[in-house]
């Protein structure tokens, strides 16, 4: 049976966007499926996607809940990461390691250039945090990315990152855990050094490169386009094994501990703080209060968690939610039903 892939992608994207827009409200109000104050109970406007209300199911919650194994932490503060590598011009720091996703901080000195690489089956997401990176990506006009740029490299597309200007470049890079780099023979004529569990061999590969589309664009200048330009925050990458979703809102008082938020059955979720401050309650951990831009927060598989925008009331904040599933399952407490 032939399946219209465009239709499936559009449906998945709409569902992801609908859930993403609802997530901040659910996390703070704890009311899945309940209309907010002043909401209409009639049918939605034509063309607007509204996710269906949650349904009751016997839902497996990991017991005991997953532990934080190194390098994973509930709260990686950027200031601590930078201090760990003080005095070094070039360094990398592992931040996320789970069965689905790996993510690291990288700093590269002025004039540095990464080897040309591609990744076999999944997209790469990059957030530039300081300095200037010239991004050379096959099929895309080269561009210079500065603080706040979000970059999407499709599968099997070779790319390099070159530090331009006089300052080091610092960026956060996210991959699917299953991907091991490919090295184009044209730019790496000698056999690369093997990595654990893999031996490099010169072979032909099939499938062709991935592409960009209306949902997955080469880059987003978040501070210019969203913070300064008024563009709407939302999903930046929505792919088979990678969801990078910008969630933006105003700071409000931290919800009470009784508001558990939700949990995920089969995967970890983490957030990159892009703007403002983020409060995060994670089951079994002290409340994280006012995480700052550049910090990374993680809720392990099966743990209740509830993120909200912290800092002075009314201050705008953005958390970039990252997980492997654009339509990932959220488990809510029965008590949250109907709560206003």
Q: Can you describe what's shown?
A:
- The model is unreliable at 1-42 (pLDDT under 50).
- The chain starts with a helix and ends in a 17-residue tail after the last strand.
- With 340 residues, the chain is mainly β.
- It folds into 2 domains: 6-27 and 61-69 and 231-331, Jelly Rolls; 78-192 and 203-223, Jelly Rolls.
- Helices cover 11% and strands 31% of the residues.
- A hairpin with a 3-residue loop joins strand 2 (91-97) and strand 3 (101-108).
- The strands form 4 sheets. It has a 6-stranded antiparallel sheet with strand order 1-16-13-18-12-11. It has a 6-stranded antiparallel sheet with strand order 2-3-9-4-7-10. It has a 3-stranded antiparallel sheet with strand order 6-5-8, with no helix packed on it.
- The chain has 3 helices and 18 strands.
- Keywords: Signal.
Q: What's the multimeric state?
A: single chain
Q: How large, in whole angstroms, is the Cα Rg? A: 21 Å
The geometry reads as globular
**Proportion of residues in helical segments:** 10-25%
Low-confidence parts:
1-42
Please trace the helix and strand order, writing H or E for each element.
HEHEEEEEEEEEHEEEEEEEE
- CATH topology descriptor of the largest domain: Jelly Rolls
Structural category is mainly beta
Distance between the termini: 45 Å
């Amino acid at each position: 049976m032939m399946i219209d892939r465009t239709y499936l992608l559009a449906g998945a994207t709409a569902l992801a966007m609908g859930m993403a827009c609802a997530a901040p409200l659910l996390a703070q109000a704890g009311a899945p499926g309940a209309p907010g104050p002043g909401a209409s109970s009639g049918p939605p406007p034509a063309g607007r996607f509204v996710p269906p209300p949650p349904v009751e199911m016997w839902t497996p919650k990991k017991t005991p809940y997953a532990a934080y194994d190194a390098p994973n932490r509930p709260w990686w503060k950027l200031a601590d990461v930078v201090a760990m590598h003080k005095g070094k011009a070039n360094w990398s720091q592992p931040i996320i390691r789970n069965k689905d996703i790996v993510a690291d901080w990288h700093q590269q000195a002025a004039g540095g250039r990464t080897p040309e690489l591609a990744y076999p089956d999944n997209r790469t997401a990059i957030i530039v945090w300081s300095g200037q990176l010239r991004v050379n990506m096959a099929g895309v006009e080269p561009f210079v990315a500065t603080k706040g740029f979000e970059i999407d490299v499709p599968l099997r597309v070779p790319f390099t990152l070159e530090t331009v200007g006089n300052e080091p470049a610092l960026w956060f890079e996210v991959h699917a855990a299953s991907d091991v780099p490919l090295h184009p023979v044209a730019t790496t004529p000698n056999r690369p050094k093997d990595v654990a569990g893999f031996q490099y061999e010169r072979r032909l590969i099939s499938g062709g490169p991935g592409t960009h589309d209306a949902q997955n664009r080469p880059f987003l200048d978040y501070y210019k386009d969203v913070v300064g330009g008024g563009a709407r925050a939302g999903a930046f990458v929505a792919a088979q094994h990678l969801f990078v979703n910008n969630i933006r809102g105003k700071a409000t008082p931290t919800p009470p501990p009784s508001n558990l938020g939700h949990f995920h059955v089969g995967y970890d979720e983490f957030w990159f703080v892009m703007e403002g401050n983020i409060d995060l309650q994670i089951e079994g951990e002290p409340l994280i209060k006012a995480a700052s831009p550049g910090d990374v927060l993680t809720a392990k598989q099966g743990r209740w968690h509830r993120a909200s925008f912290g800092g002075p009331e009314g201050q705008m904040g953005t958390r970039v939610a990252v997980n492997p599933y654009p339509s990932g399952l959220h488990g809510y407490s029965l008590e949250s039903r109907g709560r206003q």
